[in-house]
Amino acid sequence: xxxxxxxxxxxxxxxxxxxxxxxxxxxxxxxxxxxxxxxxxxxxxxxxxxxxxxxxxxxxxxxxxxxxxxxxxxxxxxxxxxxxxxxxxxxxxxxxxxxxxxxxxxxxxxxxxxxxxxxxxxxxxxxxxxxxxxxxxxxxxxxxxxxxxxxxxxxxxxxxxxxxxxxxxxxxxxxxxxxxxxxxxxxxxxxxxxxxxxxxxxxxxxxxxxxxxxxxxxxxxxxxxxxxxxxxxxxxxxxxxxxxxxxxxxxxxxxxxxxxxxxxxxxxxxxxxxxxxxxxxxxxxxxxxxxxxxxxxxxxxxxxxxxxxxxxxxxxxxxxxxxxxxxxxxxxxxxxxxxxxxxxxxxxxxxxxxxxxxxxxxxxxxxxxxxxxxxxxxxxxxxxxxxxxxxxxxxxxxxxxxxxxxxxxxxxxxxxxxxxxxxxxxxxxxxxxxxxxxxxxxxxxxxxxxx
Length: 451
Known about the structure:
This protein is of the alpha+beta class. Helix content is 53%, strand content 13%. The strands form 3 sheets. Strands 4, 5, 6, 7, 8, 9 and 12 form a 7-stranded mixed beta sheet that branches. A 3-stranded antiparallel beta sheet has the order 1-2-3, with no helix packed on it.
């Protein structure tokens, strides 16, 4: 009896079929039939990860499509900007000094490299949690630098130097933000440990798009000389570039909970007892706004935001005119400052806590019930049952379990956008003298109010 054996790829496509031609187990001939792949499909596979679409997330194709379109527009604008820079450096002008042009170039490169180091040091921790924001911001930096480049031919030496330096700094910021955010997005897309291959294929895609952009851009540069027309073309192409980039990052459905996404998810659960999945949150989240995870009460009468910090940030910060409330739980310290219709919260996570997600939920919960809590004092959140805001640990565990089932990755700490600080608490009598003197002590939670 003959049987068939198949070679398949990770997507389940049949590559080759083997058939025992004589039905014998010994000395039988095997008939081989390879699956024919159309030329267009074979070319397409050269630019897509192996096993597509099963080896990447379902938002990969949409992102790469928009990303390729924005790269095409950027390639043309970069040629127009580079021509302006060459004119500004004196190319084609016999009266210009090569030494002066070299000094301009060296000064710009030096400052931009210093800016690269400083920006990476200051903002490197924040790029991964807010990768969609920084991916879009990178292209805003890049387009701003190109518009500055267009000014260089018309400026005298010293203003020209300041413009070249400013454009170099913007490109440096663009490079750090774009490279770091792309790495985070690639890690999101890769499902089967194929991150290296995915990056390699993305490089192939960018190469083809850049070549096409250079070809079209070369024609544009040769045909367009009028300065006014150049500015109009730059504005149109920059608009297309930013719009495509915006659509690209909007299409990404991140599975990590940063401040904004966590606030959206927790608020929906508090209001409607509904668990949102990554796709639903992606439709609601903002790219440029609400990165701090802006909080609000149920009525909307009280608004504010929350941040992470140290124990000293909570105990020493006491702005005039604000009411201050301090809380301590087994996992963190929380400070709340309230004035009029606005509030500010600060969380200091204790040592041993790897995730700040539970603390962020409590902050969102505090904000949501701010209206009712102020009537009895904010400490009521930790003492009373609903509706003042108290949610039991069992309820929170059930919530987090439901989030994991919806596809959220709770292991990634995307809430803290700076170096995570943890508070080490030793012997309570020695480490917390201020709290021990406080007369308010309720069931393990302590509160201080300063008017």
